[in-house]
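hey
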């Protein structure tokens, strides 16, 4: 299902939000941050899978609200990440880091694994309220948008990757008022830590389609 193109008022609002982010962010690569709890299962899997799909088009990192600092991804998370297309070298190289204020503030788009993580990220970087989503929420909202809508919105923001992402993120955020509210379960990715392989696979089954949708949006936005 797709929505109609934004109204003139909506386009003005999109430009205003993009300009505010452009003024704050400056140039350089678009910056995306994935957030979960320990930074050893869900968010690093999201990080490496999205990086594999974008092939250098954006800078993608991850962090945890209660990170197990310097720990690698769990064995099951590593295996599933590679199975779904991530580089073995990047998967093996991951080390968990804590979600601190400078880490959150450095992002242009924050994608979390749960609503609790979304709240934690916004508390650290309140200016990013409209640029912070659970990853499944972002995918659910952006699914309404066509590639042409995304590209035209990005083109109106200029050539800066960060400004283009800001404009498209604002467009996705506007879909919150155009869709029925989702349940918490529909917007979150199950935490598989210390659980069965079956739970890891269920978590990946929720995460991977969301990653695919995020990648579609970012490819259209960043070209």
């Amino acid at each position: 299902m797709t929505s109609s193109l934004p109204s003139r008022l909506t386009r003005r609002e999109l430009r205003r939000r993009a300009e505010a982010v452009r003024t704050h962010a400056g140039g350089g690569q678009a910056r995306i941050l994935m957030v979960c709890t320990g930074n050893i299962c869900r968010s690093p899997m999201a990080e490496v899978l999205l990086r594999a799909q974008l092939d250098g088009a954006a800078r993608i990192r991850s962090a945890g609200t209660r990170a197990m600092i310097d720990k690698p991804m769990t064995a099951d998370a590593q295996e599933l990440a590679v199975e779904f297309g991530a580089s073995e070298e990047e998967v093996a190289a991951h080390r968990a880091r804590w979600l601190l204020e400078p880490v959150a503030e450095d992002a242009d788009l924050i994608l979390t694994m749960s609503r609790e993580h979304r709240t934690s990220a916004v508390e650290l970087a309140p200016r990013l309220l409209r640029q912070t989503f659970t990853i499944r929420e972002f995918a659910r909202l952006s699914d309404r948008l066509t590639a042409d809508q995304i590209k035209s919105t990005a083109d109106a923001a200029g050539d800066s990757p960060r400004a283009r992402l800001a404009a498209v993120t604002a467009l996705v955020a506007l879909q919150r008022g155009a869709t029925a509210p989702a349940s918490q379960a529909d917007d979150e990715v199950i935490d598989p830590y210390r659980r069965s392989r079956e739970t890891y696979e269920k978590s990946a089954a929720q995460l991977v389609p969301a990653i695919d949708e995020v990648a579609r949006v970012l490819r259209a936005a960043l070209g």
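The chain has a mean pLDDT of 90. DSSP finds ten helices and four strands in the chain.
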